[in-house]
Amino acid sequence: MVAGGCENSSVGIQTQLRRANTVFRFVALGYPVLLGGLAFDALVRPLWAALLVVVLLGWTWAATEWYRRRGYEPKALYTDLAVTVCAVAASSWALATDTGVPVSVGPWMAGAVLAWAAAWGRRSGAVAGAVVAAAGMVFRGGVHSSTVNETVLLVLTGFAAGHLVRLGVVAEQRMREAAERSATVRERERLARDIHDSVLQVLALVQRRGAEIGGEAAELGRLAGGQEEALRALIRSESYRDPLGGQRDLRSLVGRHAGATVTVAAPATPVPLPAETARQLAAAVASAVDNVREHCPAGTKVWLLVEDDGEAVQVTVRDDGPGMEPGRLAAAAAEGRLGVAQSIEGRIRELGGTTAVVSAPGEGTEVEMRVPRGEGGAGGDARRGR
């Protein structure tokens, strides 16, 4: 059964069906009016028959206004179905003829069924059709060809209308998501062009002039070159990433660091994580790589290892730099230098993960960041099921 809140997420098709149902209900009133007019001389209670038609007209107007103002709220739907059942019962008395066969309100009964199908889907539509058909059997002479035909038509109408609404809801959602992705891609491409024409050109110039000048300027040029390479990789990964249903492939975010001094090892299959989780974990990895470039000699090698065991994702950043003395991180935090404490450990802790830093003088440094998969678990389950 489709949730009652789908009115907001599928306003397009539900609004169109509600308007079509409004027209249908008013037109369908012509059925009992026409048959009643043709059999007017045979009606046992013609005045009551006329009053019933007026009541049905009034309720049709009231129901359509209720739906228009308040949407398909449960109170309106249940009331509409109850009034329809009462109308079926009243018609067996008010529209009775001297032949013993009452005039039916006919297609008008389907109005409430269509409303239920539009609001709550095919199952609810079929149930509403069955309820109205059961009332017809109870008050209009039991099971015979006429009531059986009405039952089949009402149940099928509710089921088919609900199914079409559900298909429309899915189609609208996909179109909306496609439009959002298209707009996002166009904006990224515009930003990529602007960055290429400004920031990347400046970084390339700094790298080239630094190499020409030499000395400390050469080191600045090397850092500028590394940042230019990382920024180009960022633009490529953001502009052409694979769609993962609102998730991000961690490999593309970490892979942008690959270069002459950075080696990245990752699984052959995507490592999907919720978008924000992936961004924060990638930011922590970037901070660890930046620490190596800032505190280690030029040419220090860095290895990034991405592991996915289904329950959690772990990224290890290891370098062959000079390492750190025991207690160095605690001393840096006490001095107010919170790069590791906040940029790395703080981010991972907020994601519900853990961080381990292993280092010793002359043996390099290893930073292990492990984050539980959380809502990205579906991806891990899918891989384990392969």
TrEMBL record:
One of its GO terms (molecular function) is protein dimerization activity. InterPro entries: DUF5931, HATPase_C_sf, HATPase_dom, Sensor_HK_TwoCompSys, Sig_transdc_His_kin_sub3_dim/P. The keyword Transmembrane applies. The keyword Kinase applies. It holds the Pfam family HisKA_3. Coiled coil: none annotated. The chain crosses the membrane at residues 23-40, 46-64, 76-95, 101-119, 126-145, 151-171. GO terms for cellular component: membrane. Residues 362-386 are annotated as: Disordered. Keywords: Kinase, Membrane, Transferase, Transmembrane, Transmembrane helix, Two-component regulatory system. Residues 276-375 form the Histidine kinase/HSP90-like ATPase domain. This is Signal transduction histidine kinase. It comes from Glycomyces artemisiae. The lineage of its organism: Bacteria, Bacillati, Actinomycetota, Actinomycetes, Glycomycetales.
